[in-house]
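Following up on my earlier message about fe (ii) ion. Here are the inputs again, as you asked, copied directly from the submission form:
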Amino acid sequence: MRLRTLATAKTLGAISRFQQHVRGLETFTLPDLSYDYDALEPAISGEIMQLHHQKHHQTYITNYNKAIEQLDDAITKGDASTAVKLQSAIKFNVRGHVNHSIFWKNLAFTSEGGGEPPHGSLGSAINQSFSSVEKLIAKMNAEGAAVQGSGWVWLAVDKELKRLVVETTSNQDPLVTKGPCLVPLLVIDVWEHPYYL
Ligand SMILES: [Fe+2]
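Thanks, got it. Here's what our run produced:
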């Protein structure tokens, strides 16, 4: 009897996941980092990297998944009011997941990245748009520091202007909210939580 109950629960779970997939309501899991938490020391402490990844990024994913399940339930019940109310949490948390997923890939220890200023086509584009890599760094630092509250500072390609640009976004807003022609190259998290230790 217990086996039958478990089998039924498993089947219902599979059906529910299939329904979510058909509706495009897929859930996420925390992506692994390609380096150890302490790999960036002394620039960034391993302890804050672990907290940032396992606590803060995980929370966006947990809250998104929870909201998606509630949305699925609301759609099944035809509860439009709840479905509408969930949009804000879904938007905020999925953006937090996407922004952090880009951010982790920006970071590297000096044996694998950083150090020398970029050269080749990226170096030329930086020089053309900002005069030098030092001026780009100063601009990103200044614009990141000027973000009120929480947000992100981005280095991006503007496909329309055919040049690099620096943009900022608030809270968990993605770069696309600043324009459809912007493609992110680098993003810095200027919330307090990556640095509070
Ligand atoms: Fe963050």
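One observation from looking it over: Residues 52, 56, 100, 189, 191, 193-194 surround fe (ii) ion (CB under 6 Å). Hope that helps, and feel free to reply on this thread.
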